[in-house]
Design brief:
The protein contains seven helices and no strands. By secondary structure, it is mostly helical.
Length: about 170
């Protein structure tokens, strides 16, 4: 039970720190999972990648991480711990946000939070890229997929699956 409590407390804290979205806490999540649960960087990237394929919130990967750590009970605990605290915080912050209306204080706060959120999201991207871009082939796949995402309206799931197939084929042929 101690493991489940520790799992819940880690993900509840991450939930409340997720300013700008769940990807903002990816570096801290990776560090805490490694420290507390011996979760490797490779496991982290794999769980995150599979979670991105699922429809819905982009942080469904945390449920996969919970399942990898402690089975079905870990998945349930992580889902509740990661999504409920931030939802409650957003509910009350949204109410306060509407109450303060169009004041200069609200405008200043919003301008201050925007670069913080962008910086945290960029650190999340860096965390995933650092472990995923390990060869010139993986860099080339990432650049092609990125260009296709920017220039076309191809469903990202198709691009992710295609990139995975190319990577699998490359590993098989090597």
């Amino acid at each position: 039970m101690t493991g489940l409590f520790q799992l819940a407390s880690v993900f509840a804290m991450l939930s409340l720190l997720a300013v700008g979205g769940g990807s903002a806490v990816l570096p801290e999540m990776q560090t805490l999972l490694h420290q507390h649960f011996n979760f490797s960087q490779t496991e982290f990237v794999h769980a995150y990648s599979v979670g991105q394929l699922a429809p819905g919130p982009n942080m469904l990967a945390v449920i996969i991480m919970g399942e990898m750590i402690d089975g079905l009970s870990g998945a349930i605990i992580v889902a509740l711990a990661f999504f409920i605290p931030s939802s409650i915080l957003c509910l009350y912050a949204g109410r306060l946000w509407m109450r303060i209306g169009d004041t200069p204080w609200r405008h200043s706060l919003q301008q201050a939070l925007e670069p913080i959120s962008i910086g945290l999201m960029c650190s999340g991207v860096y965390t995933i890229a650092r472990e995923s871009l390990v060869s010139w082939q993986s860099c080339a796949i990432a650049l092609v997929v990125g260009a296709l995402l920017l220039k076309t309206k191809i469903n990202p799931v198709i691009l992710i699956l295609g990139a995975g197939m190319i990577g699998l084929l490359g590993a098989y042929l090597a």
